[in-house]
Amino acid sequence: MSISFTSSIISRLKREITEIERQIANDKSKIAKMNAKIKQLQKDAKDHSSPAEQSKLTQIKKLNAQAAQLTDMQTDLAKQLSVKNAELRLQLAKDK
Fold it and tell me: What is the pLDDT of residues 39-95, one digit of tens each?
């Protein structure tokens, strides 16, 4: 392969890796915020017995489902990241 073609592949892989890493960081932040919100809702639901408690329990279930979905996405992103890093190492080895 020409050096120009290999360089463009390496640049693309580096951009993709950076984007995946950024997405992982954003998702981790979202999960942390959701967990904080869940803890707050659980605390509020324990402190008060009212019809609003059902609403809080519904919110907790929804947030738990969203957090689980983001966690699954984190697993997929981690797999993609390892594949891209392996591909980058391969391209860098070819470039030498």
Answer: 998 887 776 667 777 788 889 999 999 999 999 999 999 999 999 999 999 998 887
| pTM attached to this predicted model | 0.80
Six-digit token pair at 60? 């907790």
Taking the C-alpha atoms of residue 94 and residue 96, their distance in angstroms, rounded to an integer, is 6
CA distance 58 to 83: 38
Residues with Cβ within 8 Å of residue 17, at least 6 apart in sequence: 81, 84, 85, 88
Question: Residue 56 contacts by C-beta under 8 Å, 6 or more apart in sequence?
Answer: 41, 44, 45
Residues 94 and 79 sit within 8 Å (Cβ to Cβ):
no
The closest alpha carbon to 87, from 2, 1, 5, 14, belongs to 14
